[in-house]
Design goal:
The chain has 223 residues and is α/β, with parallel strands linked by helices. The chain is built from nine helices and eight strands. The chain has a single domain (3-213), classed as Alpha-Beta Barrel (TIM Barrel). Strand 6 (149-151), helix 7 (163-172) and strand 7 (179-183) form a beta-alpha-beta unit. It is globular and about 45 Å long. It starts with 6 loop residues before the first strand and ends in a 10-residue tail after the last helix. The active site is at 89 (proton donor/acceptor), 151 (schiff-base intermediate with acetaldehyde), 181 (proton donor/acceptor). Pathway: Carbohydrate degradation; 2-deoxy-D-ribose 1-phosphate degradation; D-glyceraldehyde 3-phosphate and acetaldehyde from 2-deoxy-alpha-D-ribose 1-phosphate: step 2/2. Keywords: Cytoplasm, Lyase, Schiff base.
């Protein structure tokens, strides 16, 4: 298994510098990661650094709270795509969802997907705030609204991915085209392989190099 090809090499810390982003992109090219995942202010820099490589560029939208207006998310998406993003990871409006405003939560996702009908949209559910029934419902809303992936976590919530939540999401996407991305707290090779074994097709982590080189003793993931 080429573990590197499952990984979105991620740097979303608020303190990330331009040099950090350049380093992230160079690491992704060296290790053959599927993509880099960055905040939207760094899309153009990452695109420039990745020029000529096969590494995809993923931008996060409405990050990390998901509480921005739909219009703001749409405009952020449009700008990220204009600057060269290949994929978008957007945070679901968790407050709308928790209010049982499922129509509002769905509209938020649909509005972003309309900007990128042929590109990959991942919808972050932030499962640490949801119980099992809510994870299933949120997964269904994302599926029906055009998501290509559903994703567990931003990495900035109270906890990240777990095998249990990923399995719930996999069950919700069974017999659909929608895939599952596990993210948040993935810091060692064994854990990464477990997620892939049960069916996750993408992993988001800032600990990518340690994972693929199995040099992950006492490592702490920031995402």
């Amino acid at each position: 298994m080429n573990l590197n090809t499952f990984i979105d090499h991620t740097l979303l810390k608020p303190t990330a510098t331009k040099n950090d982003i350049v380093t992230l992109c160079k690491e992704a090219m060296e290790y053959g990661f599927f993509s880099v995942c960055v905040n939207t202010c760094y899309v153009s820099l990452a695109k420039q650094t990745l020029a000529g490589s096969s590494v995809k560029l993923c931008a996060v939208i409405g990050f990390p709270l998901g509480a921005m207006s739909t219009i703001a998310k749409v405009e952020e998406t449009k700008q990220a795509l204009k600057e060269g993003a290949d994929e978008i990871d957007m945070v679901m409006n968790i407050g709308f969802f928790k209010s049982a405003d499922y129509t509002g939560a769905a509209h938020d996702i649909k509005a972003v997907k309309q900007q990128m009908p042929k590109l990959t949209l991942k919808v972050i559910l932030e499962t640490c705030y949801l119980d099992t029934t809510e994870i299933i419902k949120a997964s269904e809303i994302a599926l029906e609204s055009g998501a290509d992936f559903i994703k567990t976590s931003t990495g900035f919530g109270s906890s990240g991915a777990t095998l249990n939540t990923v399995q719930i999401m996999l069950n919700a996407t069974k017999n659909t085209h929608v895939k599952v991305k596990a993210s948040g707290g993935i810091r060692d090779t064994a854990t990464a392989l477990e997620y892939i074994k049960i069916g996750a097709l993408r992993l988001g982590t800032s600990n990518s190099i340690a994972i693929v080189t199995e040099n992950n003793k006492d490592k702490k993931a920031n995402y």
